[in-house]
């Protein structure tokens, strides 16, 4: 049996739709018929800069929703036809830009009844990145067990880049953790949506420069900011976050190259994958909790924009992302609609 896949042919090469075998699940794995796959900045950056990937041709895609096709040995609690969502990984057999993929069953969740496949595919990577950075022992360590009794009531927190997928998840996680003041920096056109996610204050990035941001954040907070989250991987955003923090404050940052600046404030770089060994146990806890949190409205999916032409439409979507033509929405592809 063969399937359609989207190969990145070589380092810094082109994306090409091709045929490839449908792999059988091994012990502990499930085979998923991929209905929806979300695009992420990491996908175009891998193509442009040749990072993360060890072997070409390769298949990308780290946000997946679909149906259980086949169950591997030892897998319980899943059956053929179950609607599921999960995070893919940077190896072809576990990637999303194909019609069938393999994922370890212990880091897969069933899609709640209140969202569809496209919405489900918008969640895994963004939520995982935020949760690892904010909650896990490898980040700010604010709640590694997802204990609903943990509360930071009365505390302020700052999120740089609230309209990004990761930033949206960070805002919602801080709301789940009970922070009283959740300040974010984003475009004003996203204000109402970000406040619906839990932001109490949205600072318009067209009105306040990055250089002046920290002072505005601290004035709004009116209390020491002990924790911040940077969803934008550049030096100016990190500086604004550091400057917003109180003495001894902690910053979770999506930039893997982020460094402390020697003033006692600590940065935690995020590798937002539940597949990595350091995050695997936390990942199991995450996937035990995430479907319920979506079902009860604690976590809501991104707004989505659906792409045409199945796998063949992904390349144009990534080009739009690279050109900074996507804001506040998640681009979603539908591999089963591939025609060529």
UniProtKB/TrEMBL annotation:
- At the top level, the lineage of the source is Eukaryota
- Its name, as the record gives it, is GroES-like protein
Q: Which GO terms describe its molecular function?
A: oxidoreductase activity, acting on NAD(P)H
**Residue intervals passing through the bilayer:** none
Pfam families this protein is in?
A: ADH_N, ADH_zinc_N
Stretches assigned to the Enoyl reductase (ER) domain: 13-333
SUPFAM superfamilies per the record? GroES-like, NAD(P)-binding Rossmann-fold domains
């Amino acid at each position: 049996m063969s399937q359609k896949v989207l190969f990145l042919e070589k380092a810094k090469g082109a994306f090409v739709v091709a045929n490839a075998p449908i792999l059988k699940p091994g012990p502990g794995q499930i085979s998923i018929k991929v209905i929806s796959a979300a695009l992420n900045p990491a996908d175009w950056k891998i193509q442009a800069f040749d990072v993360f990937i060890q072997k070409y041709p390769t298949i990308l895609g780290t946000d997946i929703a679909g149906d259980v096709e086949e169950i591997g040995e030892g897998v319980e609690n899943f059956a053929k036809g179950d609607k599921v969502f999960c995070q893919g990984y940077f190896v072809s057999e576990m990637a999303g830009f194909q019609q069938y993929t393999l994922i370890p069953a212990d880091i897969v969740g069933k899609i709640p009844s209140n969202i569809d496949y496209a919405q489900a595919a918008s969640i895994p990577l963004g939520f995982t990145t935020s949760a690892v950075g904010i909650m896990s022992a490898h980040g700010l360590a604010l709640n590694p067990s997802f204990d609903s009794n943990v509360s930071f009531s009365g505390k302020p927190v700052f999120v740089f880049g609230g309209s990004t997928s990761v930033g949206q998840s960070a805002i919602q996680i801080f709301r789940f953790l009970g922070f009283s003041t959740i300040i974010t920096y984003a475009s004003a056109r996203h204000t109402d949506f970000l406040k619906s996610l839990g932001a109490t204050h949205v600072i318009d990035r067209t009105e306040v420069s990055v250089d002046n941001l920290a002072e505005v954040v601290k004035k709004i907070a009116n209390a020491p900011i002990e924790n911040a989250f940077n969803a934008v991987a550049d030096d100016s955003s990190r500086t604004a976050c550091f400057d917003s923090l109180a003495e001894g404050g902690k910053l979770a940052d999506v930039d893997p190259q982020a460094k402390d600046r020697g003033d006692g404030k600590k940065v935690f770089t995020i590798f937002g994958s539940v597949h990595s060994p350091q995050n695997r146990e936390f990942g199991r806890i995450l996937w035990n909790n995430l479907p319920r949190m979506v079902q009860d409205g604690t976590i809501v999916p991104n707004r989505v924009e659906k792409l045409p032409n199945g796998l063949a439409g992904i390349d144009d979507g990534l080009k739009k992302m690279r050109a900074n033509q996507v804001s506040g929405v998640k681009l979603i592809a539908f591999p089963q609609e591939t025609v060529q």
